[in-house]
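We give its fold:
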Amino acid sequence: MEKVGFKAVVGLSQSQLKQAEAIILPGVGDFSTASKNLASLKEEICALAREGLPVLGICLGMQLLFQKSEEGEGEGLALLEGKNVQLPSSVKVPHMGWNTVRVVAQNRLIEGLQGETYYYFAHSYYPDPVDKDVVCGETIYGVTFASVIAKGNICGTQFHPEKSGKQGLKFLENFLGFVKR
């Protein structure tokens, strides 16, 4: 994050959240554990998001933007309606490696990223949003799934931009531009 211009602070306190210019939910772990870890901050994160603070979820972080997951117990932040479902048994799970994201709706986060671009994925679940209008990018891996979502100040990627080379850095630069607007 610092490589693209963020001053990153890692923390899980209400005082740190109140000082933040954006919240980035990272993408490592499982839904149940992450849900438990966020429980004490859920109300604060949701209140800040409703006030317009930019929120970016990466991989598991994006899945936490939704209500629940087939992966296990716990509640997401419910900033977006929908649930997370497991990739089909017809493909190797986890989905690890490079795959394309096809732009299906223009958004400031994907400015300068044309058509189909390769990004790095590492996941076994994906979000199934109720409102399909939040989907900006899709990926095919046994099923077509939302790989980029955005609604107002809430956005997420199923891929890992930090592991996706120049195009991943461009995505993060676009998010920084959104934060600094």
